[in-house]
Each structure stands twice: as C-alpha cells, then as structure tokens.
Structure prediction request, 285 residues.
Amino acid sequence: MRRLLVMMALAALALLAGCAGNASSTPTAATEPLTLVMEAADNIREADTFRLSVTQTGPDYGMMTDYGSVVFRSATGQYVAPREMQANVRVLAAGLPIQIDVFSRGADQWYRAIWTGNQWLNQPFQAGFNPETLISADAGLQAALGALLELNYAGEKELDSGAQVHHITATANGPDVTALLGGLIEPVGEVSVDVYIDRQTRQPVRFTIQEFNSPYAATPEVGEEAQPIIWTIDIYDINAPAALDVPQAGDGQVGDSGFMGAPSLNDAPPPDSTGEAESEATPAS
Prediction:
C-alpha cells in the first residue's frame, strides 16, 4: 500500500511539472501576441496626441532632399489628431549636421532648412505623407501592426526608460510597416520587428525594425560583411498638450510672421534609447 501511495505521489508530481512547463511556454489569453498587438493599435488610435522619436544605428542611411544627398541621423515629432504633425529631422550633409523642420496638415506640407533660408516653404518634404493616415485603420499604425507575421510572445522586460513591457517579435514586409516609422522612412524587403507594449496601459511604447540589404545603406568596405540597419521608434507623451509651430497657409514666404531663425520644434526630449537598439532587437536567424 505504501509503495502504491509513493508511486501515485510521483505520478502527480510529474503531471504537475508537465503542466507548469506547458504554462510557461504557451502564452495565456492575456499575453497572446496578436491580441496584445491589436489592442495596442486600438489604444494608440484613441490618443489625441503623441510624440515619437526615430533613431537609426548600423550603416549610414542615405536620403535625397532638395539640398542633395544627406545621411539620416534621427527624427522627433508630435502627432495631433486628427491631421497635423510636426517633426524635426536631423541629417548630415557633406559631413555637417543639418536640421529640417517639417509640418503637415493633411496632405499639405511645409518644411524649412538652411537651404530655404530657414523660412517655411509650402512644398512636400516627403511625397504622399499625410498625418491622417498615421492612425487610420487601413493605412496607419493599426494596419502596420496588423501586417506583422510570425508573431511570438518573448516575455516581459523593463526598457531603459523604466517602462514595464510585453515583448513581441515578428517579421513583416518592409513597406507594410512604414507607419511605424512615422511615414518618414519606407523600409524594403523582409524586416524583423520587435514590439514593446506597456503592461499597464496596453499602449505601444517602442518598436525596433531590422532592415537587411537596404539599397539606401552605405556599401560595406571590401572584406566586411553587410550589417542591417536598425530603426528604434519610441512613442511617448501620449495625450500631452499639443506644441506645434504652425506655419501660415499661402506660398510659404512667411516674412515677419515669426518663422525666421534656426529651425526648432518645441519638443520634449525623447526617452534615452542609446545602446538599446541593437541589444533590444531580435537577431536575424
């Protein structure tokens, strides 16, 4: 009888261990990755405002502007519902740092930089960009998150900003996740995506995108292996007061209306993501 009890106890322990193992490896309903991602998309669509920052690591990423070829460094901006966004884009031109202010109201765009005499010019900086599409269901953040493939729940973690997040890994077709980069950059080819969702608010707070073999990346030196471009996108100050420097409608020659001088966006500093982009991103398999 005693032997039978011992065997039954061992069997029960084995069953409990098996159940515990399954519970740790299988996401629960609360952490099912597709559910988390779509809930985060719904939550950010309800925001009246949010700020975002885009930083890039890896090989230099080239862009064409009216000033000529430049190298992207970073961008910060604020979205204000339903159709306004202002961003400050930092680039290198001939090795010199340059700032470009961009303002969009619907499809109408203005930008100012050193080559415009730091006056607003009512011309597109990014052809086709429209802030209204940033949170639209069929073309914005929600559509970009809905386009993620091979979603995997990677667990809980703490970001450098202190945010306690759910971490989800995925892949995607580059152009399908352009909205994650604020519509300013369009990745190409298949990309790896990491999504970080605040555990309390269920709002997205960070994305990282690894872009491989980009035609806009600097060519590696002979004998060096090509490295991916890594984009880190932080979303913060959700529903903070709007702080846009709005240009006047017209031909873009603002004159004495207060838009002369060095470009500057009244922007709160983004969370420090220095050193996080490469360590946070999921390595390519």
